[in-house]
Amino acid sequence: MKTILLFDMDGVLLEPRGYHRALQETVQTMGESLGFINPQLSQQEIYAFEAAGITSEWDSAALILGLMMKEIWQTQPEMNPPETLTLLPAESRTRQTPDWRAFLTRLDKWQDTQRTPRERAADVLKKDLPSDKQAMIENLVAGAHEARRSITHRTFQEFVLGSERFHQVYQLRPQFNCRSYLEQFDRPLLSSQSSQTLSDWLSIEGQSSAILTNRPSRPLEDHFGTPEAEMGAALVGLEDLPIIGHGEMDWLAEQCKQPLDDIRKPSPVHALAALLVSLGTPKLQALLASQKLVYKKHAGEIWQDLHQSTVYVFEDTPPGFQSARSAQKILSRAGFDLDLSLIGIAVDEEKGGALRSWGGEVYPNINLALRERIQSF
User: N or C: which end of the chain has fewer CB within 10 A?
Assistant: First the structure.
């Protein structure tokens, strides 16, 4: 019988100070360029976005720009969302900053799974707007993951990667002159002792692990990607663990001609692929088999090795829990049973409550969770 550990990265293995600082800097830079007074996003507001299921900073940055545009349209309805940044002096900033938290309280409950959190948030933004403004909001949100379409994406990614690497990766002119925020600010949450213990644990036959993350990751074949997940894994000493991240899921979306949101967390495809690669299945084979199982009900022999496995999923937001639980149900219908445990990692009570609502047992840090739940830690 096998035991498999699936780890989310940000908020579980490491503290994503770099991403959070980059998001805060993006919000402040965008807001100041649009004339807002002190447009700051707090750490608690970031947690509130995550508790609502909006875990990609690309999405939250685009949504916040939409909130800013709604405020602007009250007095300047003719203004379009910006395509470039024009930094304004402090005396020229006169707009009152929108209340991000008030917006978040209007979102539907996360347990409503008919639409993605990003789609639900966009619906709230579009409410009471004329059709032309609704189309602008839809374009902001739909383009949030594409550098050439989104000013918030370009700004955020330059802070994340640093100006030099941003230029190398995207072949776009940098707007700033900054070092990578990931390299400057990310901090390990997995202790060096836990990392070594995990390495020893993985050396035992029948025990395996993988990283299940929405972080951008190295491209597959000639597909575009940035090595942010690999940078994070190296920071916590887990560079040898297989990763199923944004790069892998984006490749699969293109291969299968499906929207990315249909197959990444909270989709079961994401967790299924991570389970397979944890057992040594090559990535391309794991990705394609997972998509076929979910959408074509094709359950080949590749899934046999997972039957009666014990699986622990360590997450700090609900999408990973939903992905794993849905994967368990799909495998069960195909005749392959999993013993699944959902382990939440959260200090913030709002995030902890969201994880508990999905049946997660919540711990304040990954080291304590491993010691209390995994034999030999």
Answer: N
